[in-house]
Specification:
Elements (H helix, E strand, L loop, with lengths): L2 E11 L4 H17 L3 E17 L2 E14 H13 L3 E8 L2 H12 L20
Antiparallel strand pairs: 1-3, 1-4, 2-3
Length: 128
């Protein structure tokens, strides 16, 4: 079975209590493991303000996952999140080779600076 590398972000309803948030996160992490996915990293960003109001909510609990898994599973994962009342939004990104190389550089802390900061070239003020 062919596997791919994915980044998956989902936002949990922040109005529910902390135990329910943790249970929702654990539910999806366990679902990944049970369906043959190899989880590389789970980042819980915590409660963040949403860019815009969604269903009357202004904040959500953000969780970002990096994992390798079968492509057929993504449809199942997203269907479960779509019908889960505790999930506000989600997105899955399939990495291509270029994105995987960038991710490896990120993990090593070796991402090249694209726009290096330019030092101020004025010395000692102006010539008024």
């Amino acid at each position: 079975m062919k596997t791919n590398y994915y980044e998956h972000l989902f936002v949990v309803n922040a109005v529910i209590d902390d135990e329910d948030i943790k249970a929702t996160v654990a539910k999806y992490v366990n679902m990944l493991k049970e369906n043959g996915c190899e989880i590389e990293e789970v980042n819980e960003w915590g409660i963040q303000r949403l860019a815009y109001e969604i269903d009357g909510k202004r904040s959500g609990y953000y969780v970002n996952l990096y994992f390798t898994g079968p492509g057929e599973f993504i449809e199942k994962l997203e269907r479960m999140e779509r019908i889960d009342d505790n999930i506000i939004r989600f997105i899955t990104i399939k990495y291509d080779n270029k994105m995987k190389r960038h991710r490896e550089l990120q993990k090593k802390g070796a991402v090249p600076e694209v726009f290096p900061e330019v030092e101020d070239e004025t010395e000692g003020g102006s010539d008024d």
